[in-house]
Design a protein that fits this description.
With 218 residues, this protein is an alpha/beta fold. Helices cover 36% and strands 14% of the residues. The longest helix is centred in the last third of the chain and has 21 residues. It starts with a strand and ends with a helix.
Length: 218
Protein backbone atom coordinates (compact mmCIF):
# COMPACT_ATOMS: atom_id res chain seq x y z
CA UNK A 1 0.00 0.00 0.00
CA UNK A 2 1.34 3.40 -1.05
CA UNK A 3 0.69 6.44 1.13
CA UNK A 4 1.45 10.09 0.46
CA UNK A 5 3.87 11.80 2.82
CA UNK A 6 2.63 15.10 4.24
CA UNK A 7 4.36 17.91 6.09
CA UNK A 8 3.01 19.30 9.36
CA UNK A 9 1.12 21.99 7.44
CA UNK A 10 -1.03 19.33 5.79
CA UNK A 11 0.59 19.75 2.37
CA UNK A 12 1.81 16.92 0.17
CA UNK A 13 5.58 16.63 -0.07
CA UNK A 14 5.47 14.91 -3.44
CA UNK A 15 6.86 11.70 -1.95
CA UNK A 16 5.18 8.41 -1.12
CA UNK A 17 6.04 5.53 1.19
CA UNK A 18 5.14 1.87 0.91
CA UNK A 19 3.55 0.20 3.92
CA UNK A 20 4.76 -3.31 4.67
CA UNK A 21 1.96 -5.68 3.64
CA UNK A 22 3.18 -8.19 6.24
CA UNK A 23 2.19 -5.65 8.92
CA UNK A 24 -0.41 -3.31 7.41
CA UNK A 25 -1.98 -5.61 4.84
CA UNK A 26 -2.79 -8.91 6.53
CA UNK A 27 -6.21 -10.48 6.97
CA UNK A 28 -7.24 -9.16 10.41
CA UNK A 29 -7.89 -11.71 13.13
CA UNK A 30 -10.74 -10.39 15.28
CA UNK A 31 -10.33 -13.00 18.00
CA UNK A 32 -6.65 -12.16 18.46
CA UNK A 33 -7.59 -8.49 18.83
CA UNK A 34 -10.25 -9.41 21.39
CA UNK A 35 -7.83 -11.49 23.47
CA UNK A 36 -5.08 -8.87 23.43
CA UNK A 37 -7.43 -6.03 24.39
CA UNK A 38 -8.95 -8.21 27.10
CA UNK A 39 -5.50 -8.92 28.55
CA UNK A 40 -4.47 -5.25 28.48
CA UNK A 41 -7.64 -4.19 30.31
CA UNK A 42 -7.33 -7.07 32.78
CA UNK A 43 -3.70 -6.21 33.56
CA UNK A 44 -4.74 -2.62 34.29
CA UNK A 45 -7.26 -3.68 36.93
CA UNK A 46 -6.06 -3.08 40.49
CA UNK A 47 -8.06 -5.94 41.95
CA UNK A 48 -8.07 -4.33 45.40
CA UNK A 49 -11.84 -4.60 45.92
CA UNK A 50 -12.79 -6.01 49.32
CA UNK A 51 -15.93 -6.24 51.41
CA UNK A 52 -16.09 -7.34 55.05
CA UNK A 53 -17.51 -10.71 55.85
CA UNK A 54 -19.33 -11.72 59.01
CA UNK A 55 -16.17 -12.47 60.95
CA UNK A 56 -14.62 -9.09 60.11
CA UNK A 57 -17.47 -6.84 61.25
CA UNK A 58 -17.10 -5.03 64.57
CA UNK A 59 -19.98 -5.88 66.86
CA UNK A 60 -21.26 -8.02 69.69
CA UNK A 61 -21.39 -11.80 69.38
CA UNK A 62 -24.39 -11.90 71.69
CA UNK A 63 -27.34 -13.92 70.41
CA UNK A 64 -30.20 -11.46 69.85
CA UNK A 65 -33.00 -13.71 71.10
CA UNK A 66 -33.57 -17.23 72.27
CA UNK A 67 -33.58 -20.01 69.72
CA UNK A 68 -37.14 -21.26 70.19
CA UNK A 69 -40.48 -20.06 71.39
CA UNK A 70 -40.56 -16.58 69.84
CA UNK A 71 -42.74 -17.50 66.88
CA UNK A 72 -40.24 -15.94 64.51
CA UNK A 73 -37.21 -17.13 62.63
CA UNK A 74 -34.09 -17.97 64.59
CA UNK A 75 -31.20 -15.47 64.38
CA UNK A 76 -27.70 -15.25 65.69
CA UNK A 77 -25.72 -12.09 66.45
CA UNK A 78 -26.07 -8.59 65.02
CA UNK A 79 -23.41 -9.34 62.39
CA UNK A 80 -25.79 -11.66 60.57
CA UNK A 81 -25.80 -10.79 56.82
CA UNK A 82 -29.59 -10.35 56.82
CA UNK A 83 -29.30 -7.30 59.08
CA UNK A 84 -28.30 -3.82 57.98
CA UNK A 85 -24.63 -3.33 58.75
CA UNK A 86 -23.99 -7.06 58.86
CA UNK A 87 -21.29 -8.91 57.00
CA UNK A 88 -21.57 -9.58 53.27
CA UNK A 89 -21.97 -13.10 51.95
CA UNK A 90 -19.51 -14.14 49.23
CA UNK A 91 -18.29 -10.57 48.77
CA UNK A 92 -15.39 -9.56 46.51
CA UNK A 93 -11.84 -10.28 47.64
CA UNK A 94 -8.49 -8.95 46.36
CA UNK A 95 -7.40 -10.88 43.29
CA UNK A 96 -5.12 -10.70 40.28
CA UNK A 97 -7.03 -10.42 36.98
CA UNK A 98 -4.01 -10.75 34.70
CA UNK A 99 -3.62 -13.80 32.48
CA UNK A 100 -1.04 -15.16 30.07
CA UNK A 101 -1.28 -14.60 26.34
CA UNK A 102 1.14 -16.03 23.79
CA UNK A 103 3.49 -13.57 22.12
CA UNK A 104 2.44 -14.80 18.68
CA UNK A 105 -1.16 -13.90 19.44
CA UNK A 106 -0.22 -10.44 20.69
CA UNK A 107 1.91 -9.83 17.60
CA UNK A 108 -0.93 -10.97 15.34
CA UNK A 109 -3.35 -8.71 17.21
CA UNK A 110 -1.18 -5.62 16.69
CA UNK A 111 -0.76 -6.40 13.00
CA UNK A 112 -4.50 -6.97 12.67
CA UNK A 113 -5.29 -3.64 14.33
CA UNK A 114 -2.84 -1.79 12.06
CA UNK A 115 -4.28 -3.55 9.01
CA UNK A 116 -7.78 -2.42 9.98
CA UNK A 117 -6.64 1.19 10.24
CA UNK A 118 -4.78 0.99 6.93
CA UNK A 119 -7.79 -0.52 5.17
CA UNK A 120 -10.00 2.25 6.57
CA UNK A 121 -7.55 4.96 5.35
CA UNK A 122 -7.05 6.18 8.91
CA UNK A 123 -3.25 6.27 8.74
CA UNK A 124 -1.41 9.44 7.72
CA UNK A 125 2.36 9.60 7.23
CA UNK A 126 4.18 12.79 8.22
CA UNK A 127 7.70 13.76 7.31
CA UNK A 128 10.10 14.02 10.25
CA UNK A 129 9.64 17.16 12.31
CA UNK A 130 10.47 18.70 15.66
CA UNK A 131 9.64 21.81 17.67
CA UNK A 132 12.17 24.37 18.84
CA UNK A 133 10.25 24.77 22.09
CA UNK A 134 7.25 23.10 23.73
CA UNK A 135 4.07 24.90 22.69
CA UNK A 136 0.63 23.32 22.66
CA UNK A 137 -0.38 25.87 20.03
CA UNK A 138 2.12 24.35 17.59
CA UNK A 139 0.66 20.88 17.93
CA UNK A 140 -2.90 22.18 17.69
CA UNK A 141 -1.83 23.71 14.38
CA UNK A 142 -0.92 20.22 13.10
CA UNK A 143 -4.31 18.85 14.15
CA UNK A 144 -6.05 21.77 12.47
CA UNK A 145 -4.11 21.18 9.23
CA UNK A 146 -5.50 17.63 9.04
CA UNK A 147 -8.98 18.46 10.42
CA UNK A 148 -8.33 16.31 13.50
CA UNK A 149 -9.56 18.73 16.15
CA UNK A 150 -11.62 16.86 18.74
CA UNK A 151 -10.75 13.48 17.16
CA UNK A 152 -8.87 10.77 19.06
CA UNK A 153 -5.45 10.81 17.42
CA UNK A 154 -2.38 8.67 17.99
CA UNK A 155 1.03 10.14 17.12
CA UNK A 156 3.88 7.66 16.58
CA UNK A 157 7.45 8.95 16.67
CA UNK A 158 10.71 6.99 16.41
CA UNK A 159 11.99 8.32 19.73
CA UNK A 160 10.90 10.49 22.60
CA UNK A 161 10.97 14.15 21.62
CA UNK A 162 10.52 16.21 24.78
CA UNK A 163 9.29 19.33 22.99
CA UNK A 164 6.66 17.42 21.00
CA UNK A 165 5.60 15.43 24.08
CA UNK A 166 5.16 18.57 26.18
CA UNK A 167 3.24 20.20 23.32
CA UNK A 168 0.81 17.28 23.00
CA UNK A 169 0.28 16.09 26.56
CA UNK A 170 -2.33 18.74 27.46
CA UNK A 171 -4.59 17.75 24.55
CA UNK A 172 -6.98 15.06 25.85
CA UNK A 173 -7.71 13.55 22.42
CA UNK A 174 -4.03 13.00 21.54
CA UNK A 175 -1.94 9.98 22.51
CA UNK A 176 1.81 10.35 22.02
CA UNK A 177 3.75 7.08 21.77
CA UNK A 178 7.13 5.74 20.79
CA UNK A 179 6.59 3.65 17.65
CA UNK A 180 8.04 0.58 19.43
CA UNK A 181 5.54 0.89 22.29
CA UNK A 182 2.32 0.44 20.36
CA UNK A 183 -0.36 -1.89 21.66
CA UNK A 184 -3.61 -3.20 20.25
CA UNK A 185 -5.90 -1.33 22.63
CA UNK A 186 -4.46 2.10 21.79
CA UNK A 187 -4.48 1.38 18.06
CA UNK A 188 -8.12 0.32 18.05
CA UNK A 189 -9.13 3.23 20.26
CA UNK A 190 -7.54 5.84 17.98
CA UNK A 191 -9.72 7.30 15.25
CA UNK A 192 -6.70 8.50 13.28
CA UNK A 193 -3.02 7.54 13.41
CA UNK A 194 -0.25 9.98 12.50
CA UNK A 195 3.02 8.14 11.83
CA UNK A 196 6.27 10.01 11.39
CA UNK A 197 8.03 8.61 8.33
CA UNK A 198 11.06 7.28 10.22
CA UNK A 199 8.76 5.39 12.58
CA UNK A 200 7.74 3.01 9.80
CA UNK A 201 11.23 1.50 9.81
CA UNK A 202 11.11 1.15 13.61
CA UNK A 203 7.75 -0.62 13.45
CA UNK A 204 9.03 -3.08 10.84
CA UNK A 205 12.21 -3.63 12.84
CA UNK A 206 10.22 -4.26 16.02
CA UNK A 207 8.13 -7.01 14.43
CA UNK A 208 11.20 -8.55 12.74
CA UNK A 209 13.08 -8.68 16.05
CA UNK A 210 10.11 -10.26 17.79
CA UNK A 211 9.86 -12.86 15.03
CA UNK A 212 13.60 -13.58 15.26
CA UNK A 213 13.42 -14.06 19.03
CA UNK A 214 10.45 -16.36 18.62
CA UNK A 215 12.31 -18.45 16.03
CA UNK A 216 15.29 -18.82 18.38
CA UNK A 217 13.06 -20.06 21.19
CA UNK A 218 11.38 -22.69 19.00
Amino acid sequence: MELTVYNISGEETGRTVSLDDAIFGIEPNDHAIYLDVKQILANNRQGTHKSKERGEITGSRRKLKRQKGTGTARVGDIKNPIFRGGGRVFGPKPRDYSFKLNKKVKRLARKSALSYKAAENKITVLEDFTFDSPKTKNFLGILKSFNLEGIKTMLLLPSTDTNIYLSARNIPEVLYLNSKSINTFDIMKAQRILIVETSLNDISEMFENQQAVNNQNT
